[in-house]
Amino acid sequence: MKMSQAYAWLAAGVLAAGLNASYHDGGLQRVHEMVDQVEHSSTAVLTLARLQTRLLQSELAKAGFANTEFGETGFAKAELAKTQTGFDRLQAIDDREQARVDRMEARRARIEARITCIRIPAAGFAPMVFSAPRISECPRMRVDVPRLPAIQVPKIPAIHVEIPSAGPV
User: Residue 70: what pLDDT?
Assistant: First the structure.
């Protein structure tokens, strides 16, 4: 993983933790309002469905279908049972979500408890001071380097060796 990716993931984690803490501390009022609105809307829809079922039951009873398969014991009860089943499923999903949130909160509390137990020793670091000597003048020095005498190296004669050939290969 590259360092830039690591920093990006770190920044995303810090941002997510900040948003989560802000949400649970009562911040992000607009998000709270949206969650409340969804909750009220679903409650209103279920209430309307129940009222419509009861209205249908009473209309069928007035029409004389009270004891038929379409009456109170038939169609209306089946619709009411479907509505109740749907509501029970939503409630089960909500219960699972709440259990998941409770587990996350417990995990968060355990981590916070561990963090409070961590002791980081205070270390006092003295700043390093460098002092370089200041040179205001650079004196000139004259150095005499003697010249080496030229060396005459004799020329090496070339040696030529003839190898007889075995013929065409």
Answer: 47
From residue 152, how far is each of 42, 149, 157 by CA, in Å?
109, 10, 15
Rounded-to-integer distance, Cα 145 and Cα 164, Å: 56
The gap from C-alpha 103 to its chain's centroid, in whole angstroms, comes to 19
Tell me the pTM. Answer: 0.27
For 72, counting Cβ atoms within 10 Å of its Cβ (0-12 exposed, 13-18 middle, 19+ buried), the class is: middle
Residues 17, 103: Cα–Cα separation, whole Å = 16
pLDDT value, residue 71: 45
What is the number of domains present in the chain?
1
Q: Which domain holds residue 91?
A: 3-117
How confident is residue 66, by pLDDT bands cut at 50, 70 and 90? Answer: low
> Is residue 156 a part of any domain in this protein?
no
